[in-house]
Structure formats: structure tokens, C-alpha cells
Amino acid sequence: MSLLQLLLDIVFYPPIFQVLVVGLIVSLIIVVITIWFERKAAARVQRRLGPYHVSPQLGGLLQPLADLVRYAFQEPIIPRTVDAAIFVVAPVVAAVLSIIPLGAVPFTSNPAYWPIPMENSLLIALALSTVAPLFIVLTGWASNNKFAVIGGVREAFMITAYELIAIVAMLAPAATLSTFNMVDIVEAQASLTWFILLNPLAFIAAFLAVVMSTSGFPYEIPESENEVVAGPYSEYSGILYGVNMGANYLRRFALSILIAILFLGGWLPVQPGDGLVAGYLIPTIVVLAKALIVMLVASFLRAVYARFRLDQALEGAWKYVFPLALIGLGLGIIENLLL
Amino acid sequence: MKDPEAREEPSSGAKIGLPGFKVRKIEEEVYEVFIGPQHPGSGHMRLITRIDGDVIVDIDPDIGYVHRTMEKLAEGREYIKNIPLFERMAIHDACNVTVPYVRAVEKLLGVDPPPRAKYLRSLLCEINRIAAHLYGFGIMGIFIGHSTMYMWSFGDREVFIDLAERLTGARQTHSYPVFGGVKRDMPQGFPEMARKAVRYMRKRLPEYEKIFFENPVVRDRLEGVGVIPRQVAAELGLVGPTARGSSIKYDARLAEGYDAYPELDFEIPVYTEGDSLARTYVKIEEIKQSLNIIEQCVSWLETREREAPMHPKFWEKSPPLWKKVYQETGRIKLLPIFASLKVPPGRAVARGETARGEIIYYVESDGSTKPYRVRIVSPSFRNLPVFKYIVPGHRVMDLPAIYGSIDYFPPEADR
Amino acid sequence: MSGEQETVDLEGLVSKALEGINYSISREKGYVEVSVPLESLREAALRLKNAGFDHVKSLTIVDYIKKGEFKAMYIVSSYLSEELSGGLIALSTTVKRDKAKLPSLSDVWISLLFQEREVYEMFGIEFEGHPDLRLLLLAPHIAELKPLRKEFIVKEEPIIRKPK
């Protein structure tokens, strides 16, 4: 009995609950929907059907799950030349660290359901979001493959380009409201207006950073198929490849939730009340729906854009998007003075 | 167990001292990457690429992975059997690739196809050209990561493949031109179908431009990349859209003036920039010109009476029943006379413009049923120096953009 | 023949360019053949290049096994001059089969670089002065057979194998 109690205590300990339940299970559903939408929307633009034969009633929605099952039962080949320990561990760590930021994100204003105290939650979430990409560089390095190394180096270049943009742009709301408390930021958006309207420059910069961070088109550079096969993941197969692929979507998911909270009003227009349903479930669904929209828009770019060249992407990031993020931050400070 | 490294001695043929396969020293800061032959972006070839940082310093194109020694195989086959063989160089451009061979043999035979056959050949050539250019756009699209262009152009290519199928009975390897003529006449209702296809493609081209060619990301990737100055293009002997993108006004249809082309009204698009974008725009303009030519051909063909599809020299020897069936349906079997056709001794050269550029055939006959020597130089083989001389100095990610824009096709280059 | 366009007098042009070189000229089907002896091949090539024939379309080798010699034909034309581009000139020379060596003209016409490598592996003809004479298309054990020489016979497998 006490062991069960202990397990339940661990699972329902708020930060772990949020990472495990919202992070893993919900994000799996969201990732399935995103991959399905990405393929289906691209297919619609490209005058094809897209995935169809797995669950035709749902329009092929379960195809990513079928792929996941296939990955799970494929033989994971670990080449003799790789650094086996890092080769296996790095993608798993990257996937887990990708959803760690959720442990600091509030889905409701009801303090009973906060994972951690919210005073500095924005800083904590941003800090946690920067850890995972290092392990992608590590996967490339451990693979001992020239294409993987080139891919890893490209990933490293991209990290340096987008990370600063993401952090600077996402700090703009904090500058406006003089707080790092994400709950306060959401509540303030109820009285003012959403930050996408208050500070559109910061929003655009943050959105581009999300696309860049997760190798979405037009920044699908580290794993660009036609030069570097699959970039850092060239040597991976089976479930390890599946984990690698999933980690990218998980990272996009975590950052999309941050964008939903900071710029899209979080759980607004719902006012969380008491109890599990009104206080936690409904606001969470609203936040997830907003994050999903951000993810779907990012996915749709794939049908429209080709990929930039590495130097063009870096130039764009440092010359245009980073100043944009800085201007967004400045705008946030000016708004702070006006308010 | 045999040592896999030990190579078996050749069973016949004298040895020559081959100073090939030299050992090269690699500088320390240069990264040597073998792109291909099993690589999603290489095709059936290997590019031994040396990279310094993100810049390519040297490329050694290693081709031959789909080499079939067609020149030798041709020496062992009857003349007519070589037509399907040579088609295998570029199966989606089959008519353009074989017409110069047929013309070279016709020069030796001293026959000239009847005008209707000439128009039919040109018609199929232009259908092939559009299909091949769309194929090239698709490959280029996926090379720079634009999957929509890939799917669109491969989907629209189907329209012209269907058109070719209606005309010849085969989607890709048509074997349509034969010595002194063509294999069959166009079927009932073909002109309407062709005009519909032309209308459709004219509607689609602006949409292509909207999503691909005017797309800011695509323009960034193509503009100013892989610039080939006019003088360099001439020195390297480049062909087709690659040369015409570098302001060389050369087209074998114009220079040689074969088939119905002297009577048709078309322009040779030439761009002066010499970069990947210019090469791509040459292809778009060529599709527009080809659409015009198709319209002119079907208009000419539908207003004329059906006449013999072949030179009288061969046509008169066909059985009367075949002639009757031909008059009714436009279809005919391949005449048996071709199976043992003896070609008078002589030498002939003919060139033709395929979608990728100029192809040149040298045919020498010793009077027997098989050619003594056939020499083929295909357009992709002549565009090969681009990899060696133009790509170095560009960034790694420019390689697919240049590769796609010169539309290099390994099976055609290897022959 | 069908619409051969020749806007210039190729024979006149060649005679002017190759003044002082011992050559013979003949009009073949689709091209004009200019035969020069092996010694003056390079000189003739240089002069043709200066006369405006800026690229080689085809390096054609024909193996005359009965005469015991190869004929090498450099089919050249022009890109930069539009009136020259209509005609084809085949600069040809002969070389003995047992002494199969040609001077490399790849420094005159860069477009020959890969074609000389191809001829080298197909016929075993060496090009003296070629900067990078390696195999191009064939694997080494095939290239040793010199597949395009006439003594190499392609053995075709029968469609139905006879029972032993």
C-alpha cells in the first residue's frame, strides 16, 4: 500500500506530473496530429492524397502511430565504428530534455495546479529549453560519420543563431510587465490585450526561432537530405531514429507552448475556477489548442518554402531576425514606461 | 575462402600499363566527402568532394555506375535494333535521343522522310522535351528542398506522357522514329487532346512561377549561384539550357535544321546571367516554345490528308493489306524489311537537340546489316565539366542547386 | 538532305587556317573531314581553335583493324561565332594500333578532358600530356580488355541455355 502510495505521490508530484502526463502522453497525441497535418496539408497543396490507408475513417490520422510501431520493431543497428554509449544515450536524453521546460510552465492560474512556484518560471523554462540541442550535436559527433559530423556542425551553427533570438524575443513580455511570472503575464494579457498585438515584432522573432530550432522549413538545414543524407541522424535506425525524429517535434511542442502562454494569451479567454476540471483540465486544453495552432502553422511552411543555404540562414538570423528581436525587446521596455 | 581484395585476372585481352588510380595526399584541414553513389542527392554517380569549412575546394566526378557500353553493343546489333537500345540513355526523352541516330542512318541510306513523318517526329520530340524539362524541375525542386515543385511537376508530366502514349502506344520508350519515317500516324481525336494539354500547361506555368521561381527562398538559392561566363561555357563545350543560360545562342534544331523545324516558327530563349536561375528560366521559356510548336504541328497535321508514314523506298515493299489497314486506322506493324536492312558504306554525323542539350551521333557503315562504329556523345556527358570547374568555390549547399540546374542525368552521361 | 544549313564556306576557311600544313579535305555526310598527319595534329588544332572552332563535340575513334590503325576524329564547332556553328569540322588523323599514342589536346580544347579519359579506357590509347589520365567509366579489370577495340567480341548469352 505504501509503495503504491509512494508511486502515486511521485507521479502526482506537480512538476513530474506535468512533464510525464502533459509532456509525454499529450505531446505524443499532439505530435501525431502535427505529423498527420504536416503530411496531409502538404499533400493537399501538392495535389495528392497523403496518408490514407491506416485508418481511412480518420483520414489516415493513425499513420504516424503505425510508423512509430514500425520504428519500435525495426532492428536498431549500432555500427561498429560509433561511440556506442553516447550514440544510444544522446537521442534519448535529447528527447527527454526537450519536454523538460514543461515542468516550469503554468497551465492555469489556480495555484493548486502549478508545477512549481511561479516567481521566476519564465527564466527557468527558457533556461531548460536550451539544453536539449547540445545532445543533437553529440549524436552527430558520436556517429563517426562525415555526413553526421557536418550535420552536427550545422546544428551547432543554428543553435547559436536561434537561441539568443528565442530568449530575447520571449523576454519582451517580461520587460513590458516587469515580471518573470508567467501567470502574471497571462493575467495581464486579460486586462490589456494579447502580446501578439502588443508586441508583434517579438512574436515574429520568437516564431521564427521556433521554426529554426526544430529544423522546420525553410530552415531544415542540419538534416538536409540532398547534401548530408540525414545530418546528425544518418547512422540511426529503428527506434533510435524514431526517438531522434520525435525529439525535434517535442522541442517544437515545448517552445510552442511557451509562445502560446507568452503571446497568445495562455488559457484566456477561459478563467480557471476551482476543482480539477474547471481549474486545470479546461485551461490546459485551451493552451494546448493554441500551441497546436502554432505548430501547424510552422509545419505548413514546408509546403511553401525551399530550404535556405546555411550561410543565408545564419545571415538572416543575425542580420534581420536578431535585430527584430532586440527591437521587440525595446518595444517591450517602452510599453513598460507607458503603462 | 577467397580474399575479396584479390581481383581475378581478366580472361582475355592484353594488359596495358594503366597509370590510373593514383594515390593522392589529402591536406589536413580539408574534409573529403564521398557523395554517392548511394546518397539521396547524388544520382547514379559519385562526387569525390573536398570541403574546406563550408566551401568546396575540389570535385572529382566519378561516373560510370550505369555505364552499358552502348557503343560496343551497337556494333553487334542490326541497325533497327539500336533504336530501342539508345532510348535507354534517357527513357523520358526517348524521341529526342534517337532522332539523330535515325537521321544519321538516313543520310547513309540516302532517304528523306515524307513531310508528314517529319512533323510527327517534331511533335513527339516537343512532347518529350516538355516532359523531360518537368522531370528536371521536379528533381531540382527536391534538391533544394521544395517538395511541392517536385510533386507538381511530376504530376503534370503525366499529361505529356499520356499524350505521347496516345501518339505512340508507349509511355516512355516509344521507339517512334524509324529509318525513313515514323512507326504510325496520330490517332483520331489527338489534336483536341494535344490542345487541351497545351491549354492546361499554359495555365499551370504561372502557378509554377508563383510557388517556385518567384519564391524568395528559391531565388536566394538560385540567383548568382553557379555563374558560368559565356567564354567559359564555350571553352567547356557546355550544351543545352546550360549554354543558353550563359548567353550562347546555340540550338541544334537551329544549327542543323532537321525534321520539321525549319518550317516551324519558334524562338531560342537565351539568358545572359549564366547562373542557376537563368538556366531554369531557359527551361521555362523552352516549355512555352514547345507548346507553340505542338500547336503548330497538330494544326499542320490535321489539315493534311493521311499519307504514307515512310519513305516510298520502304513503303512500296509493304503488303497491300498493311497499307489498307494504315489508311483506315493510322497504325502499322514495323515493316519486315528493316530486320535485315543493309546500309551502304559511308560515314555520317548527325546532331539533335534533346531536352538537356545537343546529342551527336557518328555512324559508320561497312555495307553490312550492322554498323561498323557508332559514336555517341550525350549532352549530360558534355555538361560534366561543370562539376569540376564551376562548382569548386561554392558552398556545400550550392552543389544540389547547381546539379539540379544543369539537369545532369547519369544514365545519359554514362551511355 | 534535310535542311543542312551552311552559311559559310567551310573549305575556304579551313584552307586559310591550315595554310602551310599538309592536309586533305573531304565532304562527308553531315560534316567536313580534314585529315592531317599525326605530327601536325597539334598545330592544326591550335590554328582551328584560333579560327573560331572553340569546342570539341566528339572525340571519335574508329578502329580499322584490317589496316592496323586507329582513326581519331575531333569533331569541332563553334559557339561564340553563330555563322560557324552550323557546320561541323572533323579534324582527323591516323595512328598505328601497336603504337597507340596521341598528343593530348586537352590544353587546346578543355572540353576534351573527359572525352580523352573515356577514349583512353575504351581503346587503351594514351594521351601524352594529359593532366589527369585516369579511368572514367570502367572498372580497371574491364578497361584492361579495351572494350571498344575490334578484337574484343561481345559474347551474348543465349536466351535458352542448352542442357549439357
Main attributes of the structure:
heterotrimer, A: mainly alpha, 14 helices, globular, C: 164 residues, alpha/beta, Beta Polymerase, domain 2, 5-stranded mixed sheet, 4 helices, 26% strand, elongated
Describe it for me?
- The complex is a heterotrimer of chains A (339), B (415) and C (164).
- Chain A is mainly alpha-helical.
- Chain A is built from 14 helices and no strands.
- In chain A, 71% of the residues lie in helices and 0% in strands.
- Chain B has 17 helices and 8 strands.
- In chain B, strand 4 and strand 5 (181-182) form a beta hairpin.
- Chain C has a 5-stranded mixed beta sheet, covered by helices on one side. In chain C, strands 6-7 form a two-stranded parallel ribbon.
- Chain C has one domain: Beta Polymerase, domain 2 (2-Layer Sandwich).
- Helix content of chain C is 20%, strand content 26%.
- Classes of the chains: A mainly alpha (339), B mainly alpha (415), C alpha/beta (164).
- Chains B and C meet through helix 1, helix 3, helix 8, strand 6 and strand 7 of B and strand 3, helix 3 and helix 4 of C.
* Approximate strand percentage of chain B: 5-15%
Strand-pairing-aware structural class of chain A: mainly alpha
CATH-derived architecture of chain B: Orthogonal Bundle
Superfamily (CATH H level) name of chain B: Cytochrome-c3 Hydrogenase, chain B
